[in-house]
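$ ./design --mode recover --in tokens.txt
reading tokens...
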């Protein structure tokens, strides 16, 4: 039930997972309708991290990797002429082009390479995207490639290692929480859910990732629940996001970490999110 691989050390299995995920997204064309829940966050003044990304982006040439419906443009605070965004859905990109014809939208055709030239942008950011990436190390390298020297990379994603859990992990043979299974009379599966979710999986993550801040692992869920259970947000997450691992990798690639304000740190900790800002050398 606990089936994990390393994007670094298991290239053949990683290739197979990437192919399976591509088929999943192609088959589920309504995916972007199902996950369009973060658009309102750009308007929420209490969401300090979204507001910080917005403030960093003002007057800059910016790029959003995994742009979805480009909700940041809906705030009307960003000039579409200064915005570029990319995603995998060609139909979604065409809708974005119709809505914001002066923005620069591109379809991602190769998951290993963003459709933009080198050293083009002042700011490149991704919001709740990295956890869905099968090759995080290549994704981070591409972020650096498209940023100008002195430009910034901003990443916002769940802190799965901090939680010692990932939302795509199957905990039992049936979907649902342990409490839901108890209420439905599925006592054995409820017990299995508790044991895996509160004991075995946290122990496994800690053992596998305790040194990831020094030596990258990029642990992937090789059997996310999106292949078996009804869709809900993040059941397709594959990368067990690790703050130190991500930051260390960016630093090694030539993007130094910048200090985050204390209120932003506190907000990220409260939400159990990772928020990183790095400057490209």
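writing sequence...
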């Amino acid at each position: 039930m606990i089936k994990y691989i390393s994007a670094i050390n298991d290239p053949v299995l990683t290739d197979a997972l990437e192919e399976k995920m591509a088929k999943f997204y192609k088959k589920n064309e309504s995916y972007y309708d199902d996950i369009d829940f973060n658009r309102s966050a750009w308007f929420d003044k209490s969401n300090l991290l979204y507001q910080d990304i917005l403030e960093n982006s003002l007057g800059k040439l910016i790029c959003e990797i995994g742009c979805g419906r480009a909700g940041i443009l809906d705030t009307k605070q960003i000039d579409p002429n200064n915005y570029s965004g990319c995603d995998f859905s060609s139909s979604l990109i065409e809708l974005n082009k119709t809505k914001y014809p002066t923005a620069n939208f591109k379809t991602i055709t190769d998951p290993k390479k963003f459709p933009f030239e080198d050293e083009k942008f002042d700011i490149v950011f991704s919001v709740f995207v990295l956890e869905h990436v099968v090759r995080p190390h290549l994704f981070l390298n591409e972020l650096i490639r498209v940023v100008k020297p002195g430009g910034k990379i901003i990443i916002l994603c769940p802190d799965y290692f901090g939680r010692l859990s990932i939302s795509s992990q199957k905990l039992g043979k049936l979907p649902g929480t342990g409490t839901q299974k108890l209420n439905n009379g599925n006592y054995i599966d409820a017990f299995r859910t508790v044991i895996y979710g509160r004991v075995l999986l946290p122990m496994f993550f800690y053992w596998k990732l305790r040194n990831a801040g020094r030596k990258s692992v990029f642990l992937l869920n090789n059997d996310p629940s999106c292949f078996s259970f009804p869709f809900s947000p993040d059941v397709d997450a594959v990368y067990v996001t690790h703050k130190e691992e991500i930051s260390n990798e960016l630093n090694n690639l030539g993007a130094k970490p910048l200090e985050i304000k204390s209120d932003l740190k506190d907000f990220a900790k409260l939400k159990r999110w990772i928020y990183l800002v790095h400057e490209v050398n």
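exit 0
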